Amino acid sequence: MSIKEFVQKFYKSDALIDSDIMKTYLHPDVKLDWNSTKGLIEMDYNSMLDMANELSRAYVRSKVRISHILAEDDLVSVRYSHFVKTIENPREEMLLAHFAIIWQIKDDKLYRGYQMSQFS
Questions:
Q1: pLDDT, tens digit (0-9, with 9 covering 90-100), for 36-84
Q2: What is the pTM of this model?
Q3: pLDDT grade, residue 22 (50/70/90)?
Q4: 47 Cβ partners below 8 Å, 6+ apart?
Q5: Model confidence over 10-21: pLDDT tens digits?
Q6: Strands 75-86 and 109-118, sheet pairing
Q7: Which residues, 6+ apart, have CB-to-CB distance to 81 below 8 Å?
Q8: Residue 11: predicted pLDDT
Q9: How far is the C-alpha of 7 from the C-alpha of 55, rounded, in Å?
Q10: Three-state SS for 99?
Q11: How far apart are CA 85 and CA 61, in angstroms?
Q12: How would you label 14-49 residue by residue, b for 16+ Cβ within 10 Å and e otherwise?
């Protein structure tokens, strides 16, 4: 599987709301630098799993729609929109935010991420 296919598989899975799935994609030394509306958020392996657990408490379904994906050497760049369905209203899909991220892949895992997000 190419690194591009690996990253696509990650975003098509429920990893963003399921920490057990997320564990299979993360390098033990993963770091994510996330420029969000709240400023810079630095995340590691445990905080990424905590985020997935937190999201799973609020959302029953997560869907990522990738609009752009490019791969070169050990880097994959992705532009996507993240949609969720809430526990309170599982029939309505809601746009959570738009994202752009560059992932570095190491040992066939997500190793370094540089992400920006914008709420809709």
A1: 988 999 999 999 999 999 999 999 999 999 999 999 999 999 999 999 9
A2: 0.92
A3: very high
A4: none
A5: 999 999 999 999
A6: unpaired
A7: 64, 65, 67, 95, 97, 98, 99
A8: 98
A9: 20
A10: strand
A11: 5
A12: bbbbbbeebeebbbeebbbebeeeeeeeebebeebb
Long-range contacts formed by 78-82: CB under 8 A, 24+ apart: 78/7, 78/11, 78/102, 78/103, 80/11, 82/16
- Helix%, strand%, coil% for the chain, nearest 5: 25, 55, 20
Sheet of strand 39-44: strand arrangement: 39-44, 26-36, 109-118, 93-106, 75-86, 59-72
DSSP 35-75: EETTEEEEEEHHHHHHHHHHHHHHEEEEEEEEEEEEEETTE
